[in-house]
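This part of the workshop introduces the protein records we will be handling. An example says more than a description, so a record of this kind follows:
>
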Amino acid sequence: MMRAVKITVSILIFFTVVWNLTVIYVDTKLSQRTYPDVYDNCNKIWSSRGLYNSYKERNSITSFRRAFKHGAVGGEVDFSYDAKLDRFIVGHGHPKKDANGNYIYAKKDGIILTLEKLFDAVGDEHYFWLDYKNLEHLSAKETKAAIARLKKITSQGDLREKLYIEASNPLALPAYTRAGFKTILGIHPLPEDDFLASLVVNGYKIAYYFNDITVIAMPYGSLERPVYGHNTAEALLSIPRFIFHIPDDKVLLHHLLADKEVRVLLVGRDKSIDRFVENNCHDNISKILKN
């Protein structure tokens, strides 16, 4: 019995030492990185699924046109890849199949909206945060076909440079980075007051470092129990961050706008909020200081 306890303790000590050394190594390497190609503009607040007046309008050409007209420079778009159609379909939910095994997609503005149609309509001079809903469910063959398709529809101008592809699988995502796209590792850490929060954040940070991924995205949490708080920000060092589900609080927004490592903000959760004129540009900061 005593021998078993000693072996268990020794194993725990070994893994603790290895873990801490890995964190130190990753922190050292990340502190030396620079990110010259990552979005770094004073207009940080993008739209989430456009600026919409109803549930059906989300992720539509109409909603994105409205958001961009109101001053948003970028937008978060939900989409999935249909391997059978070889098309990227815009939409948030997981579609059902008909009797023939074909997916049934909700229409946007009377049509089944593809990324190609969205880019053709509103792609000029705008940035897109592409939330990939089924990336981790695709086979290697389907992933190859999806990347080829995405390259084809983003071959004109500098559109490809303005895309950020998000998924939560750190092993599947790097294929898109290697293909020339910027990528986002979507993470969901624990609230900062949870005793395991630091462990989880470091785990995500290690996964980010050892894979070829551009930035990290995470929810803010609530004002009372933030997920993206001071300690989490410190743990992520200089990694560029996209923050979503941010409470609509003016003081908080100004704080996040001033955070140099936060590159993009999405305000609100499951509702459309227009805060696009809030920014970290010099003229706007001067107005804030005067008030």
